[in-house]
User: Which sequence fits this backbone?
């Protein structure tokens, strides 16, 4: 897949060739402005490259339109970074989750849609009664769970998560990542995770693609990349990952016998 998108003289994504393997979890990392989100949207036909192609199961879908594009949308879904901004504040949670079925002409009976909405909420760890609530009545983590429920509603094969925890409290981030791992396993999803946090990617992904300035810097299995990064930029990113020192053995200097104020 070779992608190029130009805005004036700026190449948002330039000469990227990248494959996503069925059933894997691929992380795409890089600093803000590196082209990660632009690439994700081209993968899903939300943006059209000015040159190059996007292939889905070997088919060139770069310029897909009409019924074929609708089929592709069902097979490939996006979890947005901002859980609040991705939900219509004037629609209840239930209406937001019912929308995909209405748009694609599925589950025409209201009762069937309501049952499916309840199932989706429970699948992401929420009470089915929340279908009658509005987004502003939910916490950030709950809104992101609703966004994930909407993304899996049509039974997609590929889920692209664009920094799905960066807008959430640290205490909630691990819960959302655990949910994504669980759904990937249960539903047999292929996952593309966009992130700037290499610690998150190491926890979630099989392979990592590193981007900088719209270009692909390095692609490697996650543990290989952590052990022996090839690119200087990758080493810089890894060096910036916070490290928590291992606790010292009891009795050692700074160990269990030191003042409680020395531990966090």
Assistant:
């Amino acid at each position: 897949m070779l992608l190029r998108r130009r805005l004036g003289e700026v190449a948002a994504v330039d000469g990227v060739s990248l494959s996503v393997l069925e059933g894997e979890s691929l992380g795409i990392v890089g600093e803000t402005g590196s082209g990660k989100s632009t690439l994700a949207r081209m993968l899903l036909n939300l943006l059209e490259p000015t040159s190059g192609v996007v292939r889905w199961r070997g088919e060139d879908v770069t310029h897909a339109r009409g019924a074929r594009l609708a089929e592709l949308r069902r097979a490939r879904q996006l979890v947005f970074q901002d859980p609040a901004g991705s939900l219509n504040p004037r629609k209840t949670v239930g209406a937001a989750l019912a929308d995909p079925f209405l748009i694609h002409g599925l589950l025409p009976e209201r009762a069937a849609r309501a049952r499916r909405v309840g199932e989706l909420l429970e699948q992401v760890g929420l009470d089915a009664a929340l279908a009658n609530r509005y987004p502003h009545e939910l916490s950030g983590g709950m809104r992101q769970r609703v966004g994930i429920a909407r993304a899996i509603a049509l039974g997609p094969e590929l889920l692209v998560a664009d920094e799905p925890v960066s807008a959430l409290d640290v205490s909630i981030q691990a819960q959302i990542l655990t949910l994504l791992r669980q759904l990937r396993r249960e539903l047999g999803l292929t996952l593309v995770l966009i992130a700037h946090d290499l610690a998150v990617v190491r926890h979630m992904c099989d392979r990592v693609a590193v981007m900088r300035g719209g270009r692909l810097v390095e692609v490697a299995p996650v543990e290989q990349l952590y052990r022996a990064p090839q690119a200087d930029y990758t080493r810089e990113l890894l060096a910036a990952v916070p490290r928590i020192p291992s606790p010292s053995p009891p009795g050692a200097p700074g160990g269990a016998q030191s003042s409680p104020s020395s531990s966090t």
Summary: The two ends are 46 Å apart (CA to CA). Residues 2-243 form a domain with the Rossmann fold fold (CATH 3.40.50.300). The CA atoms of residues 217 and 232 lie 9 Å apart.
